[in-house]
Amino acid sequence: MEAESETKPPDIEERLSRLEERIDALAQFVTSQHPRKIGRHPEQSKATWKRAAKLQPRLLDLLKEAGDVQDDPSRRSFCANAIWYGNSRDSGMKDNFVQLVGWHACFALSSGATEADEKFIKSREAYAAAYRVIYEALPPCRDCICA
Ligand SMILES: [Zn+2]
């Protein structure tokens, strides 16, 4: 057994770098769960969205659908997440979304799409970029349980 007295306390630098790793990991997790909260590489994300939308034009239909959603002021509240995720009565937009981009993408891409394009449309990057754009097109939550 190693003598415990030889174990030096981890120095500050090491602890900081470990903390940074954790922050990065957390940021990645948050991006995957809540893309709208993080905009670390907006330019790259824009290019990624454009490529995805070109390969899978149904994403543009979904974007239009999201943009057409209105927060009816005569109602007591509005919940973007109820529209996106759906509820017990209605399916959400996300059900359609996941068929277009990301791991579960299953619709045919535009003609001329290569194997690399197929791989790209299933990537986490394409998913996160498209998710951000479309989700952000919905009106924000108002007086709902998540706002
Ligand atoms: Zn809400």
Keywords:
about 150 residues; 7 helices; about 55% helix; binds zinc ion
Instruction: List low-confidence stretches.
Output: none
N-to-C SSE series? HHHHHHH
β-strand percent reads under 5%
Number of separate domains: 1
Structural class by SSE content: mainly alpha
The total of helices stands at 7
Sheet of most strands = none
Computed Rg: 21 Å
Helicity range of the residues? 55-70%
Q: Distance between termini?
A: 55 Å
Mean pLDDT: 84
Per DSSP E runs of 2 or more residues, the count of β-strands stands at: 0
Give every kind of bound small molecule, once each: zinc ion
User: What is the global morphology?
Assistant: flat
